[in-house]
Amino acid sequence: xxxxxxxxxxxxxxxxxxxxxxxxxxxxxxxxxxxxxxxxxxxxxxxxxxxxxxxxxxxxxxxxxxxxxxxxxxxxxxxxxxxxxxxxxxxxxxxxxxxxxxxxxxxxxxxxxxxxxxxxxxxxxxxxxxxxxxxxxxxxxxxxxxxxxxxxxxxxxxxxxxxxxxxxxxxxxxxxxxxxxxxxxxxxxxxxxxxxxxxxxxxxxxxxxxxxxxxxxxxxxxxxxxxxxxxxxxxxxxxxxxxxxxxxxxxxxxxxxxxxxxxxxxxxxxxxxxxxxxxxxxxxxxxxxxxxxxxxxxxxxxxxxxxxxxxxxxxxxxxxxxxxxxxxxxxxxxxxxxxxxxxxxxxxxxxxxxxxxxxxxxxxxxxxxxxxxxxxxxxxxxxxxxxxxxxxxxxxxxxxxxxxxxxxxxxxxxxxxxxxxxxxxxxxxxxxxxxxxxxxxxxxxxxxxxxxxxxxxxxx
Length: 460
Prior knowledge:
Blueprint: E1 28-31, E2 34-37, E3 71-75, E4 78-84, E5 98-105, E6 110-111, E7 137-140, E8 147-150, E9 165-168, E10 176-177, E11 189-193, E12 198-202, E13 218-222, E14 229-230, E15 234-235, E16 241-242, E17 245-248, E18 252-260, E19 265-273, E20 278-281, E21 296-299, E22 304-311, E23 317-325, E24 330-335, E25 377-380, E26 386-393, E27 396-404, E28 410-414
Parallel strand pairs: 15-20
Antiparallel strand pairs: 1-2, 3-4, 4-5, 5-6, 7-8, 8-9, 9-10, 11-12, 12-13, 13-14, 16-18, 17-18, 18-19, 19-20, 21-22, 22-23, 23-24, 25-26, 26-27, 27-28
């Protein structure tokens, strides 16, 4: 079956030629000169230690296909990724939300989550297929270490949210119902506190039929309780919120940005104290991230936060990187991202059939950063590595994996997916069957501006 790279824009009656994996959309594999159905990108060329190659001691399972809005939680030496939005759509129907799981590791390899089957079909979201869901929330239980998964929805426009609550213990043969269902939702936040030991569930999108409705509901699962407690939190609450960043700081939880009940983008940081369920808004000063949604948030110790990417109403999809010191309320911009390099790179304009012509602004990229994206997974592994996986970029879903170094530099562990506007050559998979300019703004056919990024495959 041939696939459209962008639903409704390109014809689906021609095979997509390829020379290498970069020529194919994230959900297809370059095989025999054509992009064919498979399990997605298998890493950067070279088979080095950063790719989980032979003898590396790193997981060597096929990398998960590109996706955004996957449920993700730290899992040993990597991040456990469950479900998500595959982005690129089949020509025959809307792409179903994904139902698979994998562990992407700090060494650059991939482990198939041990004995982890697909998500169950019963009790799942509507409009999906085979139990798949996007925008679900995942966290590890602070006592049992089981992976808990809550909510999510099938693929829009007909995707309905679910309130299903599942858990999986390492080595178990199946996901199991964990508690009674909660209010159906997606794109909220779930994280654990260590003291008191509890899982917390906040906010999200409870709207049916693709109509977003934010909620302010806060629930807690204390210790090994079997039902979620509805919590009336005090302090400076965030109010109804969806599509925000959420993470654990140990005894506290942190929330950044998102969309409020009026559909306005927000930029505040709120912290919830687990001991007494009290919210506080962090007073900040100086330059700060723009109001945005779908940004990735992760802790940097117990008193600092990292924010990457997302979308705002000024630039669009972003890839800037910020650090917040919670003790002082000081934001520090570590990387300006593409929009900070003198070029405004946003969704490609309407170009008729020449959708893949590289934009003139492609010369303004921040080549040291992952490309702009929203709905990416960012997390701190049990060993302290900060990993970024996937997300939805401007040309579809991404399957790349990055590690943030202590000095604030990004290290690319594995490629996967690609963006037209960041390459000095056309996206051949996006332009399949269409006439397009074969050379990029730098005049070098095949030149890849991302090649300047430090790559684990080529380093020691």
